[in-house]
Amino acid sequence: MTIRAAILGFGTVGQGVHDILFEKQQELAKLAGDQIEVCGVLVQNLEKPRPIKEHLFVTDHFEDILSLKPDIVFEATVGEEPSFTYLSQAIARGIHIVTANKVMFAAYGPSLLAQANSHVGIGYEATTAAGTPIIGLISKLMQVNQITGVEAILNGTSNYILTAMQSEGKPFSRALQEAQERGYAEADPSNDIEGDDAFYKLMILSHLLYNRQPDWETVPCEGISSLTAKEIEKAKRNGEKIRHVAALSFNNGSLTASVKPVALPSSHCLYSIEGVDNAVTVTSDLAGSVTLRGPGAGKRPTASAMIEDAVHILQNNPARRPQLSQ
Ligand SMILES: NC(=O)c1ccc[n+]([C@@H]2O[C@H](COP(=O)([O-])OP(=O)(O)OC[C@H]3O[C@@H](n4cnc5c(N)ncnc54)[C@H](OP(=O)(O)O)[C@@H]3O)[C@@H](O)[C@H]2O)c1
Fold it and tell me: What Å distances lie between residue 246 and 63, 200, 297, CA to CA?
């Protein structure tokens, strides 16, 4: 018997999942208990040329994917919809889901987790800091520890720009252009530089940590696009570095969050995070401060997080398809 996997979205991340499932076939079979076979791929535009094996079933209709009766779906499409609807339908059929889609999961993760309850596995490590296993770390650490705060660099593009401004004295526009030339920033970089991307990830962490999110409208979300070379210079003169910090704090039952540029002293855990790296510092009552640093984006780091999630789910759900409803 094989484990049937479908991939929703075949862009950077979906292709990465496909490649790793193929490359690590034998290791994965040992870990998951059976061979994992890709039974189908969902895309938006069937006409687009893509590096995909000829025999693989590719469709632009999600119903076709459901009719293949996959055991698990890897979701790597963009935006809230239709991905939320698709994943909700998959869960209703007892299909495990693994997603990288932070925009959708920030808004609908709580609802999907509630729907899945303990019957279906949900993996979302890839939504937040991609290949850096912060979700896994927190899930383990939070059981006894009370986590009082999180400070994080959750967007590699903005950190790359700030690093170039600080260490090479480049103006914002030049640093952004360089990030785009190197493939770190999208043609439309606003989600990264205005803080939305970090905000979505912070909301995912908030739900994981505190089982709730602050009212989105009340969270200050300030980008880095208006930072001037003068402000960067001033921080430098003071022995500080400006970093784009996403923060959560939980005190006496009150939860606050923010995303904004902050001048950090050299003693701060996030001071040394350079280039496209992400890092998350979690402060808790027993363990103190723990910082995890690593790649926050990219084909293989993101796909790696999804594959690890899948293995974890399959190992912990031996009866793979409970068929909750048809
Ligand atoms: N790239 C990263 O480093 C990274 C890191 C962490 C998380 N993520 C998240 O992972 C997801 C995928 O990112 P990506 O970089 O792989 O994006 P991408 O390269 O733009 O690929 C998106 C894929 O989704 C498909 N798609 C979009 N809308 C669809 C729809 N309505 N129905 C079916 N297929 C649809 C597209 O189909 P076509 O090919 O036909 O256009 C494409 O194959 C996003 O949510 C992103 O935020 C990405």
Answer: 38, 10, 17
Domain containing 250 equals: 135-295
Q: Which residues on adjacent β-strands are paired with residue 37?
A: 4
Per residue in 72-121, pLDDT (tens digit) is 999 999 999 999 999 999 999 999 999 999 999 999 999 999 999 988 99
Give the mutation target among 7, 8, 12 for probing the ligand 1 site: most ligand atoms within 8 A of CB: 12
Please work out whether the CB of residue 41 comes within 6 Å of at least one atom of ligand 1: no
In the residue annotation, 201 being an active-site residue is answered as: yes
Based on the fold, state whether residues 280 and 161 are members of the same structural domain: yes
Q: pLDDT (tens digit, 9 = 90+) per residue, 198-256?
A: 999 999 999 999 999 999 999 999 999 999 989 999 999 999 999 999 999 999 999 99
Would you say the CB of residue 52 lies under 6 angstroms from ligand 1? no
Task: Looking at the structure, tell me whether residues 282 and 310 fall in a common domain.
Answer: no
pLDDT for the residue numbered 53: 84
Give the SS3 label for residue 192.
helix
Kindly state whether residues 186 and 62 are assigned to the same domain: no
Write the DSSP assignment of 231-265 as a string of letters. HHHHHHHTTEEEEEEEEEEEETTEEEEEEEEEEEE
Locate the ligand 1 atom nearest the alpha carbon of residue 50 and give its number: 39
Whether 155 maps to a domain, the answer reads yes
* One domain for residues 77 and 169: no
Distance CA 154, CA 306 (A): 18
Kind plus residue range of the DSSP H or E element containing 326? none
Q: Which residue has the higher pLDDT, 146 or 185?
A: 146
